[in-house]
Amino acid sequence: MDRAQKQQLVSSLHKTFEAANLVVVAHYTGLTVAEMSQLRSRMRAAGASFKVTKNRLTRRALEGTKYKSLEGMFIGPTAIAYSADPVAAAKAAIDFAKTNEKLVVVGGALGDKQLDFAGVTALASLPSLEELRAKIIGMLNTPATRIAGILQAPAGQIARVLSARAKADKAA
Question: φ, ψ for residue 64 (rounded to 5)?
Answer without folding.
Answer: 80, 10
